[in-house]
Write a structure and sequence with these properties.
Helices cover 44% and strands 11% of the residues. A hairpin with a 2-residue loop joins strand 4 and strand 5.
Amino acid sequence: MTDASQGEDRPEGDKARGKDVYDSDETLFLRVGAPRADETMQLRVPPPPEPPAAGGRAERRRSARPTARERATSAVGGHLARLGAWAAPYARRLAPYARRLAPYARRLKPVYPRPGRTGWRRWMPSWRQWLGGTLVSFGLLSAFLVTAYALTDIPENLNTYATQQDNVYFWADGTPMARTGWVQRQAMPLKDIPQDVRWAVLAAENESFYSDPGISVRGISRAVYRTVGSGDTEGGSTITQQYVKNVYLTQNQTISRKFTEAMISLKLDNKMSKDQILEGYLNTSWFGRGTYGIQRAAQAYYGKDVSSLNASEAAMLASLLKGAGLYDPTLGKANHQRAVERWNWILDRMVKIGKLSKSERDRYTTFPEPLKTNPLYDTGEQSDYLVELASQYAKKAAHLTDKQFDLGGYQIYTTLDRKREKALTDAVGKARRQARSDKPKAAKNGHYGAASVATDGRILAVYGGPDHRKQGYNESNATTVPAGSAFLPFVYAAGLEHGVHKTRGGPATVVTPESVYDGDDGVPVTTPEGPYWDRSGKKVAAHNDGGRSYGKITLGQALARSVNTPFMQLGMDTGLATVRQTAEASGLLPSSIGPQVPALSLGNSTPSAIRMASGYATFAGGGSHTEPYSVSRITRNGAPVALTTPRPRRAVGPQVAEQVSEALIDSFRNGHPTTAATRPGVGGKAGTNDKGTAAWYAGTADSVSTAVVVYRIDLTKSLEPLPLDGLAGTSADSVPYTLWSAAMGLG
């Protein structure tokens, strides 16, 4: 190092003192000047050698692809870059304003304790700081609300309970019969709800409904204060908010639920019309007595449809919206007093808002007392059997799933005749009581199936059992007991319609009511090849009731006198397959037809009372059969529901049907000459079997067919029929005939 360089590196003070900076006991430092702006100090490190590529070309291609994290990072970076590019012009425009506001913002920055102040004033913010804090808070709150509104969606699915309705069943004359469902609700279009009813509700709950934005800030604030401050709950919600709570949310009184309610209400108010919201509210609100919606409330409290309510009755119902437990006037004196006060207040409010004239208000001075109990009753006893029958048919004919039907809202108009149903039920009830008195042991397991069916297929009345809640087994629709000799008309019709075959494969021979057969007891059953042998190797023979023989007898007389042996042979001559076909075409279910053996002609089939009545109705209807049905039409909230209605089809020819009907008229005349003399044209026939397990009576009068069967079954053990043990009476005093004549209006 030269002297010049040493002199340049010495500090100025040392130079002045003439002292060398670098003495022998000091450390030597290397001073490096700062690099110029155009110079950069770099340490060059050679990159590590690349490892040899493993695998083939495919492996190298896969290794060259970016990983999922790299792709995600690249995507996020791309989004941020685009966002930055979009925001850059706005940032440049706002930059001058930001520079101007910077001094004021610095002045708003709190300095604590505040200089120039003493005592507690040192710690109080200035008015500028208060203003700034308020503006910032307002801005943040506004941003939060705007964001919350944007992120809140109206739920797609309504509460199942809020939309569930009941199903109502009507008699054939249109009067209510029963209702089913977890809730009592029937939705009504707003056009069917009178203006007085609408404005009574609006006056009571939300008179500014048509002008408000869907929420009440004052009401929400009061509700929040009540909920948070005192733990109590308070109303103040608009009708829109109450509707949202009913159909989208729960009834929980929480801050989060109230906030969500308000956001959905704002959006709903922009999406739906006010009339739509009001309609939904009126159809989903709770009115007490187990009812939801104004329609069911009108029926529950006044026994009328909502369309028939006046302003006074509407005001009483509107008062229930504040709490049916407090304002139902039938629940006590205190309730009655509250109800009257609120009723008066609502009517006065209607006058104040111009929705009720003063003169009309003056007419409503007497409180409209509601009914003491709800006339919309649950089903029970006999009506449950009717509802079960109608609901099964309704779902099948209207192609409704169980889920659809259970959601409710359907009005099912049945074919059931109230007067006939009462007559049949009363008659069977009397017979049951008599049986418990005369035959207590047999009556314990006694059953009485009965049904009336019109020739056009309408089911007019059924008796299903003593009480559906105690016995779900439907006695009128059960296929458990044999038809016995009540089956003979179907064998007769098959022979008349198709003829008989005396030789195998030969031509059919025409059969008429005058055709003669052997009516003696024990006559062997024959085939074209000879006697008919059963599987045990015995000849099969036909037997009459009581072992009585009648000699040669025409088929018409044999049916009128219920002689079995000619029909057992007629069935073999006609063909058991043909007999089966005729019985099914006339209305009997294929599943109820017995084995295809000679006993088929003597009634080893087990039709229900409904199907037996339907089969006899085919003969009374000129040979045309219509499947029995129990529902004539269905609506849902007033709108028609498509229903597949059965159509008539030809079972036997008109002449054959007339010949069978004439034989049944003769049979009725033989058994009951006195009644037959007063009621011409009535036909009927008794039915028994050789085991004595069932007693029938079936017949027709005035285009209505009725079938009654009495039998015994111990339902706790099996469905095997038991001996009647005198439960059905005697041939001279038959219980089935007594019930049949009462159902037909003959007794």
